[in-house]
Amino acid sequence: MKLTAKARYAVTALADIAAFGDDGPVALSDIAARQVISATFLEQLFAKLRKAGLVESRRGATGGYVLTAAPAEIRVSDIVRAVDEPIRTTACQPGEHIGCAGTTARCLTHDLWDELGRHIDVFLSSVTLADITDKKVLGRAMVGEPIEALEVVK
Q1: First to last CA, the chain
Q2: pTM of the entire structure?
Q3: Does residue 143 fall inside a structural domain?
Q4: Residue 37's domain is classified under what CATH number?
Q5: pLDDT digits (tens, 9 = 90+) for 53-104
Q6: How far is CA 36 from CA 43, 55, 83, in A?
Q7: 146 in a domain, yes or no?
Q8: How large is the average pLDDT for residues 118-140?
Q9: Are 85 and 3 a contacting pair, CB within 8 Å?
Q10: 43 in helix, strand or coil?
Q11: In DSSP terms, which residues pair with 56 in a beta bridge?
Q12: Number of domains present in the structure of the chain
């Protein structure tokens, strides 16, 4: 399982604005060059990000995009949802009576993958753009005491 390109690039682009936008609006061409992302693709993403209220556009020679809130207030989960990318860990269709196995039944491991999806959502909801730019993401998933390495018994 992996996040889609839309979600990854949207988070990367807004992190770029958080990192480089202190002096004013950031042009999409600058984000595209720094992050090696297609400017055309960024335009599509920023239409959705603007509609979700995460960024505002500024016109003119020094125009570009600015965040509508402080980086510490913008959660990664909000960005992912803004570009219409649900994080799915099962093949079940939400709201439909189709299970993981293509029938009405759920697969044997459905609850495992569904719970993983919940953990991913909780984690992404706990990380902000400020956490990314301040390099405070590593170790955030640790809950309680670290798990010691398990020895594999044959």
Answers
A1: 29
A2: 0.81
A3: no
A4: 1.10.10.10
A5: 999 999 988 899 999 999 999 999 999 999 976 777 777 665 555 666 666 6
A6: 14, 20, 19
A7: no
A8: 90
A9: yes
A10: helix
A11: 66
A12: 1
